Amino acid sequence: MAETNAQRIIAACEEYHAAHGNYPDKLDELVPQYMSSVPVAKYCIAWNRFDYFNHGNPLLVWCVVPPYFRKIYSFEGRRWSYLD
Fold this sequence. Notes:
Largest sheet: 4 strands, antiparallel
Radius of gyration: 12 Å
Number of domains: 1
Oligomer: single chain
Strand content: 25-35%
Number of helices: 1
Distance between the termini: 21 Å
Structural class: alpha+beta
């Protein structure tokens, strides 16, 4: 589920970038034009949301196995990496 939702967020960010020339400052800027709402990463009480940072190189982050294993998508590099 998180993989699919992450791809939806990435696609919406890319559409936003194509229209505005930059990535959004926060994911809420994608609603409602690019997404009806920002999806959760998974249905659980903790670590269920995506984190998004736009300080130079926009990154989308979600915690696969709390609290350590995190997937990180770099919009500039258009690739996933992992952080333990």
